[in-house]
Design brief:
Blueprint lengths: L1 H45 L4 E2 L22 E2 L13 E3 L1 H6 L3 E4 L6 E12 L4 E5 L4 E6 L7 E2 L4 E6 L1 H15 L5 H13 L4 H10 L5 E5 L4 E6 L6 E2 L4 E6 L3 E9 L11 E6 L7 E8 L9 E9 L10 E9 L7 E4 L4 E2 L4 E9 L2 E14 L3 E6 L6 E5 L1 H10 L46 H22 L3 H17 L8 H17 L8 H22 L6 E6 L2 H4 L2 E5 L18 E6 L1
Antiparallel strand pairs: 1-2, 3-22, 4-24, 5-14, 5-18, 6-13, 7-9, 7-12, 8-11, 9-10, 11-13, 14-17, 15-16, 15-18, 16-17, 19-23, 20-21, 21-22, 22-23, 25-26, 25-27
Helix pairs in contact: 3-4, 7-8, 7-10, 8-9, 9-10
Amino acid sequence: MNANKKIIIVALSTLAIGLLLGWLIFGGSSSESKMDDEHQHTTEIAGETVWTCSMHPQIRQSEPGDCPICGMDLIPLEDDQDEVLDPMAVSMSPTAMQLADIRTATVGTMDPVKTVRLNGKVQEDERLVSSQSSHIPGRIERLNVNFTGEYVRRGQVIAYIYSPDLVTAQEELFEAQKIKDTQPQLFKSARAKLKNWKLSDGQIDKILESGTPSDEFPITADISGYVLSKNVNVGDYIKRGEPIYEIANLSRVWVLFDVYESDMPWINKGDQVRFTVQSLPGQTFESKISFLDPVINPKTRVAKARVEVPNKDNQLKPEMFASGTVEATLPKKSNNVIVPKTAVMWTGKRSVVYVKNTSGSGVSFMMRDVTLGPGLGDSFIVESGLEEGEEIAVNGTFSIDAAAQLVGKPSMMNPEGGPAMTGHNHGGMEMSASSSTSTPGKKAEVKSVSINQKAKDALKPLYEEYLNFKDALVADNLAEAQSAANELKAKLDAVNMSIFTGASHNAWMDHSSDLKNALQHVQHLKDIEAVRKAFQQVSEGMIDLTKAFNPLEKTLYVQFCPMADNNKGANWLSTEEEIRNPYFGEAMLTCGEVKSTIK
């Protein structure tokens, strides 16, 4: 019995020791493994991938998908994207730059050369054109040159003329020859009379040898060239000095190029012109400008630049069209740099480029205002704002500017920066006044936006013209109403939108667009009822504009006529509480009530 107890005790002791050793060996490692697993899991969560849009970097999501703004596939956010390089700079990842096709180039200096394109025509050299006239009055007996374009040589007989005066002069010469010995002066006078008619000494000697007067007198060409026009026919009577032919020597021709007013500062006498002629493909001609018209043609508004060209083998024919270029070299300044036109964005008064900055944290772009000089074809001279060696975006600049606007950074239309106005509400972004969450058919509430005094002063002239518009309708005066509406539109167009920044810029664009649409066709309307219908839209626009900016220091009354617009009712603004109805005029002058006031 005692032996059995001892055996049981030893067995239990052995089992307990085995369990203890097993727990120490396996239980500790399991716990450690569990701790490692927990640590790894925690690290994975802490390093969770953040997904963003390459075009809208303000989007941050914990899982892949589509951008809620543009619908593009989201990409993993790189670590260096979270580092802000500059508060006003736009950071972009290499992937975003590739998707937006953004290319950059280093700014450099070069000799500013502007390529001016000219169009013109080949013309005969006026100095080599002459009129072949008759020096003797008479009748055309024969024409040896019968059509235009025929080539004649100098001294060639081109026509024969019968002249009674010449016959008489020859007979006088014969009589003077008989008394030559006693009256030599008379003979000289008769001979000189024939020479005045351009007869040569040899022709006069032949007449004396023949002893009989000639009925036909030959006319010879004074120059060699092509006949441009034939002015007479056989049998025509002509006077002394009357032209028979017009002959041009085309061994040298002119090319007259049209120079427009905008190109005149770049074209000077002596500039080299390279030109081609469509009928002579593959051939390029070069010559210098020998003359530039000092006066502009009042009808065509162009001046002529003359180029003289030797015309070998008569390749160039008058009236051929020519296309030429002039490389105009401008005076070089030490601080002038050249940039491609694709790198520059315009806002009317401002020109901006995006300068690239690269650091260990990544790539960013900073907007920079520049002052442009003359255009050089596909590039611009930058007078100030850039330095040689800086790197700028030359392609995809609008994509960079769009990204800047979305994140509220300085951009082309908003140089001071401001909150992003995307019209959606993703990730806590503000929604615009025209949000799609508003009830369909119900006008969205106009939000008040603060503006500076300069912007308020710019809006005040609008109310003056609007009130004139209203008063003209009250007086039933169609002409004055249209005139006031036209003035209101002009004052609206004259407002500089750059004075509205941030949220006020978007509000101004919305309200001014509505007013412009309402005023667009007022001056073309034929009756006062149509103008009153347009005035209703203008009034709603002015009321919204007043609620948004409230630029006036005095109280404005929003007045309402329930019978206007086919009993639907219509509002208008007035500076006086007394009702003067612009929708019916004298017919129902006091119909209406004050609906609200804007102080």
